[in-house]
Amino acid sequence: MGSTGDLPKTYKGVVYDEPGKVSTKIVDLDMPEPGPGEVLINLTHSGVCHSDLGVMTNRWAGLPAPTQAGQVGGHEGVGKIVKMGPGTETSSVKLGDRVGIKWISAICGSCPACLSGHDGVCFNQKVSGYYTPGTFQQYVLGPANYVTPVPESLPSDAAAPMLCAGVTVYSALRKSSAKSGDWVVLLGAGGGLGHLATQIASRGMSMRVIGIDAGSKEDLVKECGAEVFIDHTKGNAEEEVKKATGGLGAQAVLVLTASNAAYAR
Ligand SMILES: [Zn+2]
Ligand SMILES: [Zn+2]
Q1: CA 213 to each of CA 171, 190, 252: distance values in angstroms, whole numbers, following the listed order
Q2: Average pLDDT in the chain
Q3: How far is the CA of 17 from the centre of ligand 1 (A)?
């Protein structure tokens, strides 16, 4: 156990004061005490994800219950561990470490999903910013064995969106059959998910990226590493993909936009 000096008794957080509406409120919250296996993190950065809007407005049909009033949102947070709970002495993280909090805040580690390595669909998962207080606050609790260590070379502002948007597109790229050197088509390549997918696919995984988006996104998409940019508002994107790939087409297509038209293609 241990902590870094005196912590304030209260701190600021942002809550959904009227779930169902677009409405937030800054409130004072009581400092929580890390329980067994938990760490207390002083957050410095949080991403804002489109899913946060769905949770706030109760528009996410797949979630089991409406959001509670007073819930702290957010699920892409980075900060430093300032207090260790009982039983964390042997964990891989320690006081002062910079760590991240993800959409899935905690897993059980013992259900069939966890035991088969699919902890992302743990039957007993806790979701940050839904029924577990999230990252739109100055302090948050997380399990010592499930917070994500952030490498020293990665700034916190760049690390925060990796914890949901980054991992979402990385997972999709890994699960697609595409390998280094293969062409991949990214629909919505200049968006929140798309601009990360373009960088991860091209620079991180050595794939050849064809980015499709509206013309205003061309510079961004090319800066992110796309070899080919196609403006979907002009002409025939399918034909342009065939042309760019010498008639072969791409190994994988990722839809990274919420537009139904992109899925219908
Ligand atoms: Zn998210
Ligand atoms: Zn589980």
Answers
A1: 21, 6, 17
A2: 95
A3: 20
